[in-house]
């Protein structure tokens, strides 16, 4: 809250950023000079950059997991020439298994 009071009666988590922005805005000749302070305040309120970073990390994690799963599937396809081979009833080279 821009007033500085949070729900619990104390200062809100973003009040310090609001004060920095307000101080800059009062002293600045052009409002655009205070853009970094305004961006910091908006980030504190809405966490847009933090959410975007978390989403990018999650997307990369999912992409890597899918890549590893596809690679694992390729390996499994190469290793299994059929159900009988994977069970071990027939040797790969065509030679029969002797016991």
Automatic annotation (TrEMBL):
Keyword DNA-binding (UniProt): no
Disulfide bond annotation, renumbered to this chain: 14-44, 24-34
One GO cellular component, as annotated: mitochondrial inner membrane
Entry keywords, A to Z: Chaperone, Disulfide bond, Electron transport, Membrane, Mitochondrion, Mitochondrion inner membrane, Respiratory chain, Transport
Membrane topology per record: Peripheral membrane protein
One Pfam family of this chain: Cmc1
CDD domains according to UniProt: NDUFS5-like (cd24141)
Database matches in PROSITE patterns: CHCH
Entries under InterPro entries matching the protein: Cyt_c_biogenesis_Cmc1-like, NADH_UbQ_OxRdtase_FeS-su5
BP-aspect Gene Ontology terms: mitochondrial respiratory chain complex I assembly
Localization (cell): Mitochondrion inner membrane; Mitochondrion intermembrane space
Principal subcellular localization: mitochondrion
Function: Accessory subunit of the mitochondrial membrane respiratory chain NADH dehydrogenase (Complex I), that is believed not to be involved in catalysis. Complex I functions in the transfer of electrons from NADH to the respiratory chain. The immediate electron acceptor for the enzyme is believed to be ubiquinone. Required for mitochondrial cytochrome c oxidase (COX) assembly and respiration.
UniProt family annotation: Belongs to the complex I NDUFS5 subunit family.
Designated name of the protein: COX assembly mitochondrial protein
């Amino acid at each position: 809250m821009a007033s500085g009071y949070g729900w619990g009666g104390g200062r809100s988590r973003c009040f310090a950023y609001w004060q920095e922005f307000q101080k800059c805005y009062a002293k600045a000749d052009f409002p655009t000079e205070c853009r970094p302070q305004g961006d910091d305040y908006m980030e504190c309120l809405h966490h847009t950059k933090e959410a975007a970073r978390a989403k990018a990390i999650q997307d990369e994690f999912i992409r890597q997991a899918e890549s590893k799963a596809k690679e694992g599937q390729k390996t499994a396809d190469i290793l299994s020439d059929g159900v009988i081979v994977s069970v071990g009833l027939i040797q790969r080279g065509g030679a029969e298994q002797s016991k």
